[in-house]
Design goal:
Blueprint (H helix, E strand, L loop, with lengths): L7 E9 L5 E8 L11 E8 L4 E6 L7 E4 L2 E4 L5 H16 L4
Antiparallel strand pairs: 1-2, 2-3, 3-4, 4-5, 5-6
Amino acid sequence: MVYHMKAKLLLRNKRVYADGAIREMVIWKLPEADAERPHGLKYRLYYGTEEECLVRYDNERGKGDHRHYGDREELYRFLSVEKLLADFRNDIDQLRGSDE
C-alpha cells in the first residue's frame, strides 16, 4: 500500500501595509527532497501591489530557487529558511526606504 504524504505548512503570513502594498510569505515542508528542491521546501515570498510584483522569491518546478526583482529574474542560492526570510525582508526594506 502506498501512502501519499502531504506537504506540511510551515509559514503563512500576510501583511497589507497602510499604502496598500502586500507582503505574503508561504513556506511548505515537502514529504521528501528531490533534485529540484534538495532542501525539501516549496516557498513563495511576495511583495508588491495587486497590480505589480516588486519582489518575489519562489521555487516553482522547472526553475528552481530564484528571485524576481522588478523586471529581473535571477537564480537565488538557498542556504536556509532564516537567510531566505532575511534576504526577502532586506529587499522590502530597500524598496520601502526602511519605513515599516
